[in-house]
Design a protein that fits this description.
The structure holds two protein chains of two kinds. Chain A is mainly alpha-helical. Chain A is built from four helices and no strands. Chain A is rod-shaped, with a radius of gyration of 18 Å. In chain B, 78% of the residues lie in helices and 0% in strands. Chain B has five helices and no strands. The longest helix of chain B is centred in the middle third of the chain and has 26 residues. Classes of the chains: A mainly alpha, B mainly alpha. Chains A and B meet through helix 3 and helix 4 of A and helix 2 and helix 3 of B.
Chain lengths: 60, 138
């Protein structure tokens, strides 16, 4: 586990016990959409899907 | 003490029951964002299953390709609605999420018909996405 993951886990634990920390994290993430913690749909779903890739392979 | 616990449990049951079956409640922004990302993850996993199990069936693959495109563009629209949560109309979010859930459902059906056993994240994404999107998009 890398230090960033450990830090995020610790922040998550702290956020569960202190609402102030949870609020701070939420504001920090929302203020910066490109923040590492904030995932975007385009990060999860590439333009070319796995099925499209398989379809191209099948038609070769 | 026992009576208090029973009363508390009853209050929880009533609160839960009143939230079910009625008109979909507008979620908080953070919950809405989590729902978008969960449905996106469900689409990714279901699409991978479709590509693996339907690799020799072009009609299944074409179904998944089309449904993936619908789901992806709808999820990006839902994400934009979450980004503009304070100014935006919640209906934009629910309609976009409903369209993405339909896309996910089509991919899941195609993958299942090809023999895939869908991971729990796909069924969870379908259930949660439908709960937020259901009934509120007109």
């Amino acid at each position: 586990m890398n230090p960033l993951d450990i830090g995020i886990k610790l922040l998550g634990l702290a956020a569960q016990t202190a609402p102030v920390i949870a609020d701070f994290i939420r504001k920090a993430v929302d203020a910066n959409p490109d923040h590492a913690v904030s995932k975007r749909v385009s990060d999860v779903l590439p333009v070319e899907s796995a099925s499209e890739h398989a379809l191209k392979d099948l038609s070769k | 003490m026992k009576a208090r616990i029973v009363a508390f449990a009853l209050a929880l049951v009533i609160a839960f029951a009143s939230g079910c079956g009625g008109e979909a409640k507008s979620p908080a922004r953070d919950t809405a964002r989590a729902a978008v990302l969960l449905v996106a993850e469900g689409v990714r996993v279901a699409d991978k299953a479709c590509a693996t199990f339907g690799e020799n069936d072009d009609s299944i693959l074409k179904t998944c390709v089309d449904a993936y495109g619908t789901a992806r563009s709808s999820l990006i629209a839902a994400e934009a609605a979450v980004d503009a949560w304070d100014a935006g109309d919640r209906k934009d979010f629910t309609c976009a999420l409903a369209a993405s859930v339909r896309g996910l459902s089509a991919i899941a059906n195609a993958a299942t018909s090809a023999g895939a056993k869908l991971p729990l994240i796909v069924t969870d994404a379908l259930t949660l996405g439908a709960a937020f999107a259901g009934g509120a998009c007109k």
